[in-house]
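In this section we walk through a basic example: taking a raw amino acid sequence and producing a predicted 3D structure, encoded as discrete structure tokens. The instruction is simple. Fold the sequence below.
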Amino acid sequence: MSDPLDALEKSISALRRAIRDASAAGDTERAGELRGQLRRAERAWDTLVETDESAEPPVAPTAGPAARGASLPAREHVHRALTLLQTPAAPKLIVGVHEAFFPGELSASKLSSLRRDEERSYRSSPGARPYYLCPALAYDLLTPVRALITISTWDPEQRLVGPLSPRVNFLRSAMRVAETVHASQSPPSAAALRLLWRFAMNIPDAAPVATVGRASSPDPQRVIDAAHSELNVHQEADRATRATAARRARKKLNDGELLFGAPPQGVIRLRARA
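The resulting token sequence is shown next.
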């Protein structure tokens, strides 16, 4: 019997090739349908990986979830944090989210070399991995925004950054973190409360009302409501900017550039002269 993970990885690779073919042929409807299939296959792959991890016996009787989490590659830690946020994120935020909600250790210093490794891996064997960690793309030049990390399986609109995107992504991240804290059946960790405080203090009406002699924890629902209220002001203009840029990116960029960004303008001019 074939390994289900191997079968899914082959299916994911085939879907990526089919998406490239459909995009090259200008069949946007078919490409969109295939992207949906790809996302479902990738979610199934993630579920199988997590199931395999939970089924593995601990190395020692005292080994718990933290020990198993520590054995995961750094890219898996980053993937889990970004999947929770669903927005482009800086290394500091990714590390904070991982510390708040996931076992194992992740340091910001690992992320800079990790981004280079991901691009090298893609260039040497495109589509061999179910996902890649990629930079966000600037809406105007379509060049990489190296301070922000995304996941290759996200649609281009989700990976692009426009003038309003930093604030919109901050508010969306705040909502995702607050929703995760709110949905947890166990008390939030100190790291999760610190992270929620960081968001609450930078959103109008999100922080708890101060009382004399008493420090209050941020209320996740209050953070969600306050972030959503401000998000309604910015999100439509931001979405329109990113949608326009995404259409341009699909026309101008090849598959690798869609993931890792267009070369700088100076490089383009040099190539044209060569």
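Looking at the output, two observations stand out. The chain is about 65% helix and 5% strand. Residues 241 and 255 are 21 Å apart (CA to CA). In the next section we compare this with other chains.
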